[in-house]
Design a protein that fits this description.
This is NAD(P)-binding domain-containing protein. InterPro entries: NAD(P)-bd_dom (IPR016040), NAD(P)-bd_dom_sf (IPR036291), NAD(P)-dependent_oxidoreduct (IPR051783). It comes from Saccharothrix coeruleofusca. The protein is of the alpha/beta class. It has a domain of 206 residues: NAD(P)-binding Rossmann-like Domain (Rossmann fold). 44% of the residues lie in helices and 17% in strands. The chain is built from 12 helices and 13 strands. It has a 7-stranded parallel β-sheet with strand order 3-2-1-4-5-6-10, with helices on both faces. β1, α1 and β2 form a beta-alpha-beta unit. The mean pLDDT is 95.
């Protein structure tokens, strides 16, 4: 196949490009900034359908591996920022893909949409603008693609690994904490985890099969205590991880929300309701995820083997 990858210079995007080429597909790599390995520099948040059609001409499939993540804390109201980064570019991209006759697409999303689907009583899209944008991303993308262009949505948890100088966006502060002399504290709960290589394998398989499914990706489920312990071990500064009471987590998040309100900012995941997620075990069955059940230890070691900025 000929496949165009949007966000090809990112951590996961680079692994997707590499895996596609290992499978002997032709790849057009697109990223916001021109750099080695990028065929076209294009900002997907501003690109028109006409510009995207010109890039997509002659391709069979497309991967959207860009977007805005939940660390962003824009000025209130924040939803337009997440819509502009996650929803609008996917709708335009898949409109262009449909008009060019592409036969398959993959969108890299968030595992929050998996829990939104499995637990509607949690009201995740109502309470958290970022999660709403991911739900709308999948809906708007498939609506734009139409019935003849299957769109697989990969629902990603914590992703470990490296790709050149690219690392997970959240890795640096965790690395500094793990290497410091500060005590390690973890609340109850935990999260699914995967690796950039696993995501790439699932993405390429979804393209080859033209699956059009929602695919929660998971290699291993980790409690927060286990995750911190493994990160500290990878930095060479392993020490006990002590329990952080749930009441302290809730109080800290309330203060975070107050500070944001005082500065006119709004998080994509509302601190007033975030403890309901952080204190749960946001686990995904690896056998149902599209990736094989396996340890993420090697990818954690790869992520934190050197001090990060």
């Amino acid at each position: 196949m000929r496949v165009l990858v949007i966000g090809a210079s990112g951590l996961v995007g680079q692994h997707v490009v590499e895996r596609l080429r290992q499978r002997e597909h032709d790849v057009t790599a697109v990223a916001r900034t021109a750099r080695e390995g990028v065929d076209h520099a294009l900002d997907a948040t501003t690109a028109s359908v006409t510009e995207l059609r010109a890039l997509l001409e002659g391709h069979d499939g497309v991967v959207f591996a860009a977007g805005v993540d939940d660390r962003e804390v824009p000025r209130k109201p924040c939803y337009p920022v997440f819509h502009r980064g996650n929803v609008a570019p996917v709708a335009r991209l898949l409109t262009a893909a449909r008009e060019e006759g592409l036969t398959r697409a993959v969108v890299l999303g968030s595992y929050y949409t998996h829990f939104h689907r499995e637990h509607p009583e949690w009201r995740l899209a109502d309470l958290h603008p970022y999660i709403r944008s991911r739900v709308e991303q999948a809906r708007a993308g498939r609506e734009a693609a139409g019935p003849r262009l299957p769109v697989a949505v990969l629902e990603l948890p914590f992703v470990f690994g490296r790709a050149g100088d690219r690392l997970p966006n959240w890795a640096a502060p965790l690395d500094r904490w793990a290497r410091s002399r500060s005590p390690l504290l973890a609340p109850e709960g935990g999260s699914a985890a995967t690796t950039a290589r696993s995501v790439a394998e699932v993405a390429v398989r979804a393209l080859e099969e033209a699956s059009g499914e929602d695919i929660p990706v998971c290699d291993e489920n980790l409690t927060w205590r286990d995750l911190l312990d493994r990160v500290a071990a990878a930095t060479g500064n392993r020490r006990p991880v002590r329990a952080l009471p749930a009441a302290v987590v809730r109080a800290g998040l309330r203060l975070t929300g107050l500070a944001q309100a005082l500065t006119g900012r709004q998080s994509g995941v509302d601190p007033a309701h975030l403890s309901r997620l952080l204190l749960r075990e946001l686990f995904v069955e690896p056998s149902a995820s599209g990736s094989a059940s396996r340890s993420v230890d090697a990818a954690i070691a790869e992520t934190f083997r050197l001090p990060l900025r």
